[in-house]
Amino acid sequence: MTLPDSKLNRRDLVLCAAVLLCAAAVFCALLAAGGETGTVAVVLRDGTVLARLPLDTDAVYTVEGTYENVIRVENGAVRIESATCPGEDCVHQGAVSRAGGSLVCLPNRVTVTVEGAGGTDIVIG
Amino acid sequence: MNRTKRLALCAVLTALALALSYAERLLPLGLLIPLPGIKLGLANVVSLFALCFLGTWPALWVLLARVFLGSLFAGNLSGALFSLSGGLLALACMALARRTRLSVYGVSVCGAAAHNVGQLAAAMAVMGTAAVWSYLPALLVAAVGSGLLTGAAAAGVFRAFTKDAQLRAVMDWSKR
User: Fold this and answer.
1) Could you give the ipTM of this predicted complex?
2) Which of B13, B34, B65, B130 has the most other CB atoms within 10 Å of its CB?
3) Judged by CB atoms within 8 Å, which residues 101-130 of B form the interface with A?
4) Do A6 and B148 touch (CB under 8 A)?
5) Which carries the bigger pLDDT value, residue A87 or residue B109?
6) Against a cut of 0.80, is the pTM above it?
């Protein structure tokens, strides 16, 4: 049985660099796709559209489910203000305002995606 | 290898993987890197060990037992979907990567990156939206770091197993 070598070699470093390059490429692609200012925040749960919140109108929208997410639109940006889920990762994601930006709450299976004026902006990694 | 010995070794590895994934939850990694879904992935060392010392099929059984028992202990089955898709993709990629001339470190990074991609694929299926892929860059960068760290752990284990006579006996079983 041949075991992989247990010393770090040059190929490993090339692989690491390649993975980091991939990350940078995806990041740049996302930035380019999300360059324009968003106009509407789409709230999805389990892939179903619950609400479309225009970013130019301040509003509060609460998603009920396994947990509760309070979504606030303010100053042209959307953020999850509070949540009853254990980690509150969605709250820590801050505010998004650009098209293609998104907020995700895995425990409650909720996503908030910002779309631009061009209509649906599907971001594929 | 004797079937009983192999079964016993698989059971020990499953228990070890469960203990490692529980132990690493005690590390406050979330304070250091405040991103969801980032973890060290020490259980991947077990997958890598099983893959190299026992073969692909035993590694798969250990993985399935670990995911099933782990989600049973954690008490949620939606977590099992994420661990399963991540674990399976990681195992498949490591099985391919170990046939190349990458070292343990490289194979481990492959596993870590594949694990994160698999988890995102599961997240996309659960959430019904492709928006989750915006996490891919952060998760890939984290995978390089955690892959190298768990790779170092695996390299230590591998080195011990090739040096120590008693441990090498374990490897000799697997040849039979």
Assistant:
1) 0.81
2) B13
3) 101-107, 109-110, 113, 120, 123, 126-130
4) no
5) B109
6) no
